[in-house]
Amino acid sequence: MLLKKYLKSVWQATIRHEQGILSNTELDQRKLEQTQYLHEFDRAIQKPLWNYPTETVYYREASSVNPLLSVRIPLLAYNSEDDPLSPQIGLPIEEEAKENPYVVLVVTSFGGHLGWFQPGGGRWCVQAVYNTLQQFWDCTGHGGPCKRFKVLNRSQISHAQGRFCYECRKYCTQIY
């Protein structure tokens, strides 16, 4: 339902700008009309509009990796491996996140694009962010892995039960 609503808004925005987009002589309207997937759309539209050699280069340039290295205030970032609008190639991975001491990157195995919906309604990421921040506060300076909180397995993550232990680095798929 949410995805349909999002795709409808993207389509409406595309229609509003159709003449401007199609007036670009670099665009192949036939390819645009045949697109079924996001990477095909990016290859047909973003690549020529912004003069990128490939859609992969576009993803890399549009990703948060470059600004991530410049962050100078504490940043807790969540991303999902199954995010259809943020391909893994654009995800700031371990090396970049570890390079900056101000950044904690939490990568979940599922959650979609700004989703993290839980059964019965609501979003489990809100509780996960709260729990992570609470854990930072609770564990500051205690000098060892936190043993007070239940460590979750993947099936429990969707319900946001228990708390994330930052020291143990257990709760989500990967934390950098």
UniProtKB/TrEMBL annotation:
Source domain of life: Eukaryota
Biological process according to GO: medium-chain fatty acid biosynthetic process; medium-chain fatty acid catabolic process
InterPro entries: AB_hydrolase_4_sf, AB_hydrolase_fold
Alphabetized GO MF terms: acetylesterase activity; monoacylglycerol lipase activity
Family of this protein: Belongs to the AB hydrolase superfamily. AB hydrolase 4 family.
Protein name per its UniProtKB record: Uncharacterized protein
